[in-house]
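Subject: Cytochrome c6 structure
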Amino acid sequence: MRKLLSVVLMVTLVLIALTRPVAADTVSGAKIFSANCSACHMGGGNVIMANKTLKKDALDKYSMNSMEAIVTQVTNGKNAMPAFKGRLNKQQIEDVASYVMEKAEKGW
């Protein structure tokens, strides 16, 4: 009986571990940002639409101050910003969003 409970517990723990989302990686996000975003958003700026930067005040003003909002923007694009769906996978987009949020909080 003890052995059966141990096996059930182990299987349960493994299933929980496998279904939990992977945490965003800001180190990876920095590399992806550098390769894909920095041409337009160097230092948190925006060379196309100067008022829509990645700085905290602009993210707040334009309701882009959440992981979900940034992930949606990067995935689908909007206006002059291209969609990165298909170019970057879901984890890479989440990593970039995490990096942007972290940098905005620190003032770029």
